[in-house]
Amino acid sequence: xxxxxxxxxxxxxxxxxxxxxxxxxxxxxxxxxxxxxxxxxxxxxxxxxxxxxxxxxxxxxxxxxxxxxxxxxxxxxxxxxxxxxxxxxxxxxxxxxxxxxxxxxxxxxxxxxxxxxxxxxxxxxxxxxxxxxxxxxxxxxxxxxxxxxxxxxxxxxxxxxxxxxxxxxxxxxxxxxxxxxxxxxxxxxxxxxxxxxxxxxxxxxxxxxxxxxxxxxxxxxxxxxxxxxxxxxxxxxxxxxxxxxxxxxxxxxxxxxxxxxxxxxxxxxxxxxxxxxxxxxxxxxxxxxxxxxxxxxxxxxxxxxxxxxxxxxxxxxxxxxxxxxxxxxxxxxxxxxx
Length: 338
Ligand SMILES: Cc1cc2nc3c(=O)[nH]c(=O)nc-3n(C[C@H](O)[C@H](O)[C@H](O)COP(=O)(O)O)c2cc1C
Known about the structure:
Pfam families: FMN_dh. The chain is α/β, with parallel strands linked by helices. The chain has helices spanning 3-13, 43-53, 91-95, 101-114, 127-139, 153-166, 181-185, 195-203, 217-226, 247-258, 273-281, 291-321, and strands spanning 56-57, 72-74, 77-79, 83-85, 120-121, 145-148, 170-174, 209-214, 230-233, 263-267, 286-289, 336-337.
């Protein structure tokens, strides 16, 4: 099984939902939420793609970075490369039902673990989705992370406790899910959080707490004030607010302002090792990969997820050699030009 056969299988099984396009830039699926696309005009998904694409590498070939180090540490765990599986839900209404919710969670959690990294599970209007995710994590001895929708705090804390019971590595909230159409469809109340709300959530657990969906320096600083362990610079794959900046547009300023006080991860259009390296050069400690894991699961189940991640890992290794980068934990800003 290689990445082309995984994508081909996914394309066949996701007819009408995803083109598994050669260039996954948000054009084919624009406006498809529910579905695989970005919301409205699809511009926020496209901006993730464009802002990354416009960053170019400075090639370097006279150096001794022959065997770059890809290992890093996150939430106290050593991972083989700094790429985590993003939380994703809604196999039926977003992906066309090529796998069940239960199968998807197992594929991602196990596929990530087998590739030497950590997968996340998400939350949606159907409460069963979160439970399937926790079951997959429990089956893998707690090796996974749970991201909960910005429900009422009492509902979030209930789910944090369930996640703790499953033995998860970390918990968090996708704050950018505050106005999600898919939650509305299920009649589930979600909304924005105040700093006080966030403080209450951080206090509710001893686990590292993640705030996913931070796109400004101001809100990154608020997360520090609330005691958040890690932020994910993300516009939710362009699915929540049309005409949003791309993650790569805002990441560098956020890292400059808060990078020494809080862990900063990023996501949006990570499709290759080059994309990972660009986000690392902008200052991220690691990245999340979303849609490609859907192709992996639907196109090749656990092995498909592994194929996707291992391909990205190998590309990252090659690209580090060609930019003279020795260690993923010390990527120089000078390897890129905007
Ligand atoms: C179909 C679909 C479902 C998603 N569901 C969730 C979710 O339940 N929770 C969440 O935090 N993010 C969710 N996301 C956002 C991803 O976690 C991630 O931020 C985004 O997909 C990254 O962009 P990429 O797909 O371009 O890599 C979803 C994304 C997609 C495409």
